[in-house]
């Protein structure tokens, strides 16, 4: 327990270049998760994020096996997952079952490829639970470029996307291309999910992509305030998780999930107290 909260050791580690790079990555991921999260919650896509992360794991595992850049493999796997989910689940009643099928297939193939990979075990473990030592210039450049692309597309489509997320039937009646928007948004979520796999890990990427937004939606119904709160909560979870993981050298995802869950509990209590006060 002495090393778990070793402030002096943490301060020394914070001066290292790879840690600063990891904090930059976490800040970008927090911004991505905070912007996309409320829309994910509004569209009931939390389960699809999990399914997409499994295909990102498969893509990353395939890249490891073939000696390619892991980030590129995870990104390709997540985009493929988003397209498959969008094309196979045209009806809302099919959505959960299609995600379950894709999730199981992705996880199975990912486990097989990790078993076939004979390299360092830390590379395998990092894909599952995240790591901060792999944030080199190439991965930061990839993350930054993808994040800018996501923000540009989201800025162009945000109003119709929000309309379709709040009430898809009315939006469709008004001529909004809800099917096309759903496919584009699935790809954006896939890209963001793949970027989170390297830091948070495929198993727990939900903690960053969904939990902060779910917490924000507990305390406000305003889309703008929910987005701002989700960004704040995601930044605290991502950056705080990395800082707390430094001294013990524990997986980042353990602390990211703990912080985001505590934030969610606080917001849940606030919402219950408000409801009781107005009952």
TrEMBL record:
Source species, domain of life: Bacteria
Pfam families reported for this sequence: ABC-3
SUPFAM superfamilies for the chain: ABC transporter involved in vitamin B12 uptake, BtuC
Location within or outside the cell: Cell membrane; Membrane
Record bears the keyword Transport: yes
Entry's transmembrane regions: 18-41, 61-85, 97-117, 137-158, 179-197, 228-246, 252-271
GO terms classed as biological process: transmembrane transport
Single GO cellular component term: ATP-binding cassette (ABC) transporter complex
Keywords linked to the UniProt accession: Membrane, Transmembrane, Transmembrane helix, Transport
Principal location listed in the UniProt entry: membrane
Membrane-topology descriptor: Multi-pass membrane protein
Similarity comment text for this entry: Belongs to the ABC-3 integral membrane protein family.
Protein's recorded name: Zinc/manganese transport system permease protein
Organism: Actinokineospora iranica
């Amino acid at each position: 327990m002495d090393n778990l909260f070793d402030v002096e050791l943490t301060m020394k580690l914070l001066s290292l270049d790879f840690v600063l790079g990891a904090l930059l990555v976490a800040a970008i991921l927090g911004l991505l998760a905070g912007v996309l999260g409320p829309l994910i919650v509004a569209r009931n896509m939390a389960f699809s994020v999990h399914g997409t992360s499994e295909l990102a794991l498969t893509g990353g595992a395939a890249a490891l096996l073939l000696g390619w850049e892991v980030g590129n493999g995870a990104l390709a796997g997540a985009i493929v997952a988003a397209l498959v989910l969008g094309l196979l689940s045209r009806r809302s009643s099919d959505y959960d079952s299609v995600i379950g099928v894709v999730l199981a297939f992705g996880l199975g193939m990912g486990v097989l490829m990790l078993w076939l990979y004979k390299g360092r075990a830390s590379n395998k473990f990092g894909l599952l639970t995240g790591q901060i030592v792999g944030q080199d210039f190439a991965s930061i450049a990839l993350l930054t470029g993808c994040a800018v692309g996501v923000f540009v597309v989201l800025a162009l489509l945000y109003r119709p996307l929000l309309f379709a997320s709040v009430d898809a039937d009315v939006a469709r009646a008004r001529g909004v291309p809800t099917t096309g928007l759903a496919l584009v948004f699935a790809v954006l979520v896939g890209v963001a999910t793949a970027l989170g796999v390297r830091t948070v890990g495929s198993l727990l990427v939900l903690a960053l992509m969904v939990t902060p937004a779910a917490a924000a939606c507990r305390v406000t119904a305003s889309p703008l305030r929910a987005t701002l709160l989700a960004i704040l909560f995601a930044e605290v979870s991502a950056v705080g998780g990395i800082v707390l993981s430094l001294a013990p050298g524990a997986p980042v995802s353990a602390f990211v999930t703990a912080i985001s869950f505590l934030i969610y509990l606080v917001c849940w209590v606030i919402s219950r107290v408000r409801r009781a006060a107005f009952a």
